[in-house]
Amino acid sequence: MHKEQEKVTDKNRFKSCMMKPDEEGNIYCPQGHAFTLEQRKESVKGRYPRTIQFYRNEHCEGCPLRSQCTRSKHGRTLQRTDKLAEMQIEIRENLMTETGQELMKQRSI
Question: Which residues contact 32 (CB under 8 A, 6 or more apart)?
Fold first, then answer.
């Protein structure tokens, strides 16, 4: 939660948590190029199944920000899990309520 509330600066703008999908579900890099869905993998770890989506940005070659964004030869990749994103939204909503704020104050003490 604290990472999401940080202002976007030169240091953190290349982190995957700062590259959020828009209303249509497209993810864009800081340079403005769209990531494409490369693979969808379903796995069962423990008791619960999960679906991991792998995205790749193929516009990294010749990008002036490449050295700051990635060291990969094949372009920047991201992994997203829809269930995890839904849980993060629910947690964020719970923490914005009055009781959530009080619990966070008690936890910091």
Answer: none
Residue 108 counted as domain residue: no
Going across the sheet that includes 48-56, the strands are 36-45, 48-56, 77-81
- Show the domain range for 15: 2-80
Positions of the chain with pLDDT lower than 70, given as ranges: 1-5, 109
Q: Torsion-angle region of residue 75: left (phi > 0), alpha (psi -120 to 50) or beta?
A: left
Among the residues of the chain, which ranges form H helices?
A: 2-5, 66-69, 82-95, 98-108
